[in-house]
Amino acid sequence: MKLKLRELSWAFLFKFKVIRFIIFYNLKRYSQKLKLLNNLNLNKNSIVLDIGSNNGMITQYLYDKYSCSIFSFEPNPYCFSLQKDIFRGMLKIKIFNKAVSNDNKKKKLYLSKYTQNVKNMSTSESSSLEKAKSNISHHKFLYVKTISIKKLLSKFKYIDLVKIDIEGHEYKILPEILRNINKIGKIFCEMHGKDHRKEFEKKFNFWEKKIRNLKERKFFYW
Q1: Which range of residues forms the domain containing residue 48?
Q2: Are 46 and 160 a contacting pair, CB within 8 Å?
Q3: Domain contains 205
Q4: Residue 145: what pLDDT?
Q5: Got the DSSP string for 5-42?
Q6: Which residues contact 158 (CB under 8 A, 6 or more apart)?
Q7: pLDDT at site 215
Q8: What DSSP character marks residue 92?
């Protein structure tokens, strides 16, 4: 998918490490999250899954910090095109234009109610497979391929870090994540319904009880 001038400019500037650290990593919308990823026990041999990678910010930051191997999953085709441009030639970063879900099939990716089309990076983070999400449109969507979390996890003997940011769909993959908890080092997950998106509050309360004993050593809210 062809990128607009704004995203082409972003991709060009983002390729310079010094600019990433001086400007991009200090942007207010990212800086607090990125700080949570400092001082992790990761290195060049570590395996990371970035589930819901959007514009590639977290993927790039983890690579800059630890030089680890990263498998990045993003269903939005426009965000995927941006990542293809940014990560071209980077052999340790593999990107996939798929959503991670609880099964393998095509599903509707609902776009933000505040956007006209998929080529809007400012609202791309709102896209979701969950029809119940309050800030998406039921009439603006596209079909995307999914890979089941079970199939994905089966490809690895051990995963040092799993980062999840999939706009309410995390509750569909958490059962399999917890079944495989012994082969995962740490999990950073945005849990909708905790402080925002009250439509997921019941799901958050249910799963928060299940992960309570993991929170001190393995499971961290994003």
Answers
A1: 5-100+153-221
A2: yes
A3: yes
A4: 97
A5: HHHHHHHHHHT-HHHHHHTGGGSHHHHHHHHTTTT-S-
A6: 47, 183, 184, 185
A7: 66
A8: T
Does 143 reside within a domain?
Answer: no
Pairing of strands 184-189, 159-164: parallel
- Which tokens hold the place of 104? 């393998």
Q: pLDDT category, 214, cuts 50, 70, 90? A: confident
The alpha-carbon radius of gyration of the chain (Å, integer) is 17
Lookup: tokens for 182: 């012994």
Averaged pLDDT score across all residues of the chain: 94
Tens digits of per-residue pLDDT, 138-152?
A: 999 999 999 999 999
For residue 36, pLDDT over 90 is answered with: yes
CATH number at residue 167: 3.40.50.150
CA-to-CA distance for 171 and 146, rounded, in angstroms?
Answer: 15
CA distance 220 to 19: 29
Q: Give the chain's domain count.
A: 1
Q: What is the pLDDT of residue 222?
A: 73
Cβ-contact 111, 123 below 8 angstroms: yes
Q: Token pair for residue 110? A: 């609902």
Distances (CA, A) of 118 to 40, 86, 108, 121, 204: 34, 19, 13, 8, 28
| Mean pLDDT within 97-112 | 96
